[in-house]
Structures are given as C-alpha cells and as structure tokens.
Amino acid sequence: MVEKKLLKYEVARANLEKKAHDDDLSEKNMLHSIQMQKRQDAFRKMHENKQFMNEWEAEGRKNWKQNREARAKEIARQLYFEDREVN
Predict the structure, then answer these.
(1) Closest CA to 63 of 55, 52, 75
(2) Three-state DSSP class for residue 2
(3) How far is residue 87 from each of residues 74, 83, 84, measured CA to CA in Å?
C-alpha cells in the first residue's frame, strides 16, 4: 500500500531526472555550438587580416618601387645639371 503511494513520486522523480539530463545535454550542445561558431569567426577574421596584410604589403612594395624610380630619375637629372654647370 505504501509502495503504491510512493510509486507516483518515484515516477515524478524519474521524469524530473530525465528532464534534467535532457536539459543538461541540450545546454552542453548549445555551448559547444557557440564555441564552434566563435572558433569559425576567429579563423575567418584571421584569414581576412592575413589577406589585408598581403594586399597592404603588395601596395607598399609597389609604392616603394615607384618612389625609388622617381628618386633615381631626380638624382640623374640633378647629376646631369651639375655636370652641365661644371663643364
């Protein structure tokens, strides 16, 4: 008789334990999903930064080459005029 009365509480306890387990599993899955999303975002951002740095470096090299050529032309022009003045 007492066992019959306790049976409904045992069923309720079992249901609560199952719900708690399911909720815990759901929370773990959600946390894992969030962590994976953050990781993917970090990889994407790192790739974007690397691509930007490569473009920036390429532009810098191009500008450096243009500046070097302009300076060489200016030096040649100055030397030409200095030679003209001396002679």
Answers:
(1) 55
(2) helix
(3) 20, 6, 5
pTM value surpassing 0.70: no
Q: Which helix (H) or strand (E) holds 86?
A: helix 2-86
d(CA 70, CA 65): 9
Condensed to tens digits (0 to 9), the pLDDT of residues 19-73 reads 999 999 999 999 999 999 999 999 999 999 999 999 999 999 999 999 999 999 9
Sequence-distant (≥ 6) Cβ neighbours of residue 20 within 8 angstroms: none
Instruction: Give residue for tokens 């690397």.
Output: 50
Write out the two tokens for 31. 């946390």
Cα angle at 12 between 8 and 13, to 5 degrees? 115
Burial 47-75 (b: 16+ CB within 10 A, else e): eeeeeeeeeeeeeeeeeeeeeeeeeeeee
